[in-house]
Write a structure and sequence with these properties.
alpha+beta; 16 strands; Trna Endonuclease, Chain: A, domain 1; seven-stranded mixed beta sheet; 2 domains; five-stranded antiparallel beta sheet; elongated; 356 residues; 31% helix
Length: 356
């Protein structure tokens, strides 16, 4: 039962009363958490206490970034959306000022990570393998990758007691950002007496952005037919070349997975022994192109082999790519797919990745 009754007969109550049978109403004997680790553990066990997070979401504690460890990182199992959680108790002096800047700093560091770097750090902290999970919209890892690249995060400040200065800071940040980046508060007030514990979650700031759904959230992943339709309208001479390559890739079981760029786009999903990888990404901006994503494999022992496949492709400087630590994703025009050496190289890239 929730009450707000302040002082009653000289006894300060917490706002929570309970009773057994027909006995007297009394306040819980204990409130709060012994330390922030207890708060983190509560979120790990019950992620669905948080707004926008499903019960079967994936949780990682103490995720390492270059700015320090994030208390909890949560991947929604339905769409790969990413929630960062920083926990602070009311008695911690950082709860008023530093916590907001701290979690934004963590988000900025996470945004710099490729999916492969993110996934390795995730697994290093005991996180589940995200590359083996399929959703109704395609591989979960593709959704995670897209959200990382676009810095589409929900930042949650988890506290045992929300205070007014925190509310003011959340209001300001949310006024200055769009719906792909939100900051909110979650209060997990905990009370206990004997062998009974009571947890009361309250949120602030999350709902404020709900009416302002951004174009990205409205957009479904692009299908290969929509990509083909763009070619028919804007670059008709490339359509047959694109369809021919896709047919070759699909015969090898390398399938299209749509992404959510502003114009038709998608990735080729290659299944490996450890899950899906995405060595080729298609875009349509001023013209249709495909990216060879060497950057996503720069930590793999076979990355130099991937680059060597393209050494004789005009416009790709293999030596420069090596000199820059393989941090490249060179683009090849779809209009060039009638060049046998290009389609051969693209297929070889996918085949080599599939053996990893």
């Amino acid at each position: 039962m929730l009450l707000d009754i302040g002082e009653t007969e000289g006894i300060r109550v917490t706002g929570i009363l309970y009773r057994k049978g027909n006995g007297s109403w009394i306040s819980p004997g204990d409130s709060g958490y012994a330390n922030e680790d207890q708060l983190q553990a509560m979120i790990e066990e019950f992620p669905n206490l948080l707004p926008g997070v499903s019960a079967d979401s994936f949780v990682c504690r103490e995720f390492n970034t270059d700015s320090g460890p994030i208390d909890n990182v949560i991947i929604n199992s339905t769409d790969g959306s990413i929630t960062l959680v920083e926990c602070k108790l009311a008695r911690n002096p950082e709860v008023r000022r530093k916590i907001v800047g701290q979690i934004i700093d963590y988000a900025a560091s996470m945004h710099k990570l490729s999916f492969e770097e993110f996934h390795q750090r995730w697994k290093d902290r005991g996180g589940a393998d995200l590359t083996t999970v399929e959703t109704t919209k395609g591989p979960l890892s593709l959704g995670v990758q897209t959200n990382l690249e676009g810095a589409r995060f929900t930042l949650l400040l988890a506290v045992d007691e929300i205070n007014e200065p925190l509310k003011d800071m959340v209001i300001l940040v949310n006024k200055k950002t769009d719906s792909t980046f939100r900051v909110a508060l979650i209060e997990l007030a905990r009370h206990s007496t004997g062998d009974t514990e009571i947890l009361i979650p309250q949120t602030f700031g999350y709902e404020a952005l709900k009416p302002e759904v951004g174009e990205y959230e409205k957009r479904d992943p692009w299908t290969k037919d929509e990509f083909a339709a763009w070619l028919l309208k804007n670059e008709s001479s490339s359509l047959a070349k694109f369809e021919s390559l896709i047919k070759i890739l699909e015969e090898k079981n390398f399938k299209w997975g749509g992404t959510k760029s502003e114009t038709p786009s998608g990735a080729i999903c290659v299944k490996t022994s450890t899950g899906f990888r995405y060595p080729l990404v298609f875009h349509t901006f001023d013209k249709a192109t495909v990216e060879a994503r060497f950057v996503d494999f720069r930590r793999e022992p076979y990355v130099d082999h991937l680059v060597s496949i393209f050494e004789n492709i005009e416009g790709i400087d293999a030596n420069t790519i090596r000199a820059n630590g393989y941090g490249a994703k060179p683009k090849i025009a779809v209009s060039r797919f009638d060049e046998i050496k290009i389609t051969t190289a693209l297929l070889a890239l996918c085949e080599r990745v599939s053996k990893s």
